[in-house]
Amino acid sequence: MQTKFSVNGIRRSVDIEPRMTLVDCLRHELGLTGTHVGCEHGVCGACTVIVDGKPVRGCLMLAVQADGATIQTVESLADGDTLAPLQASFRRHHALQCGFCTPGMLMTAHALLIAEPDCDEHRVREALSGNLCRCTGYIGIVEAVLEARAAYRKHGRNGTS
């Protein structure tokens, strides 16, 4: 089936099998390998991308369901070699170790901060509760998200001017 959507600001058209998941389409058809595949059951959150402004598990959504949608992946956050404020905050707070969960954490946090730039620690923990990390213990991740709020308050949608 031919499916059309916008990914990271670029209109794309792909010819795919109807049963292909969105994460597999992004990785294998479009070469956007920043989004990771973990459990393939929607439990771990590693495959989280933003579809029409909402965080979505890419392993649970079929690519054909995204027809006409606007999709944002982790590749959209940085501007070339310049990290987005959220990414820089993750770096400062050592909010990653092995890095496997990081793209999903970043996209979940990014969606939260766009919608709620004044969120508190409880809300950050609640939003990230569906993203599993086996390395960090979440303290650095939560601190990084809380620090990044200022950039989203100041600059809006991407935390950058």
Question: What attributes does this structure have?
Answer:
161 residues, alpha+beta, Ubiquitin-like (UB roll), DNA polymerase, domain 1, 2 domains, 5 helices, 5 strands, 14% strand
**Name of the CATH superfamily of the largest domain:** Beta-grasp domain
CATH architecture of the largest domain: Roll
End-to-end CA span: 38 Å
Percent of residues in helical segments? 25-40%
Give the mean pLDDT: 95
CATH class of the largest domain: Alpha Beta
Your description of this structure?
This protein has helices at residues 22-29, 85-92, 102-115, 121-128, 139-155, and strands at 2-7, 10-15, 48-51, 54-57, 70-72. With 161 residues, the protein is an alpha+beta fold. The chain has two domains: 2-76, Beta-grasp domain (Ubiquitin-like (UB roll), Roll), CATH 3.10.20; 85-155, DNA polymerase, domain 1 (Orthogonal Bundle). A hairpin with a 2-residue loop joins strand 3 and strand 4 (54-57). The chain is globular and about 45 Å long. The N and C termini lie far apart (38 Å). The model has no long low-confidence stretch (mean pLDDT 95).
